[in-house]
Amino acid sequence: MKLETLIVSDNQDIQNEIISKIKELINFKNLEPGDKLPSERMLSDKFGVTRSNVREAIQKLEFYGLLKSIPQSGTFVANIGVVAMNGMIDDILRLETPDFKSLVETRILLELKTVKMASLRRNEEDLRRIKEALDAYEAKALLGEPAVQEDLLFHLAIAKASRNSTMNTFMLTITPQIIIDFEKYHVCDKNQAVIGIKEHTEIYEAIKAQDPDLAKQKMKDHFSILYQYCYNVK
After folding, report:
1. Tens of pLDDT along 198-208?
2. 88 and 108 part of one domain
3. Tens digit of pLDDT for each residue in 4-34?
4. Domains: count for the chain
5. CATH code for the domain in which residue 122 is found
6. What's the rounded Cα separation, in Å, for the pair 93 and 134?
7. pLDDT value at position 4?
8. Which domain holds residue 154?
9. What is the 8-class DSSP label of residue 76?
10. Which CATH number does the domain housing residue 33 bear?
């Protein structure tokens, strides 16, 4: 097992342990929705971990809507009820780190929706951002340089143009791990990157023409090789 895998696993174990202890604290003190949690410093002392560990656990629970942090005020229990909170925390603790295949599948499902929305809702500023990302990708690809980050910035610009904040958030959430996996598995080689210029351009033109069906089909074509590739990764 690689060192980086061990580090991720260790961090995940610490984070889950803190989340479990926060759950126990909420139940032991009978904290109700809107009640305030102890400070990060107090929790780190109580749990015997660093403040950064506590902060990461709180941020994860906040991401799932179970806690709410207010600057200069503290962290509060969300208004969802204790029973629901306990059930959701148990589900969070059972979550596995997404593998490459699941990330690809999720990304494809999201982007086939966002590209249709973007083609209907985009404005001139959206088109400018998408085109800038396309040009940046093309410049890197033609030089034979890695263009994974520019590729994903192109797709993030489309997600933003969809005007769906939830889908945009999902895309932002999974993008960092996608970048890591793409570079790890060498998904975008030089030949594929050059082909990607044509595919990205066709997607952009379909969005510009406000043709949602064509935009979806071009995105689907763009992902065909990636979808096949992910099933060959061991």
Report:
1. 999 999 999 99
2. no
3. 443 445 678 899 999 999 999 999 988 988 9
4. 2
5. 1.20.120.530
6. 39
7. 41
8. 100-230
9. E
10. 1.10.10.10
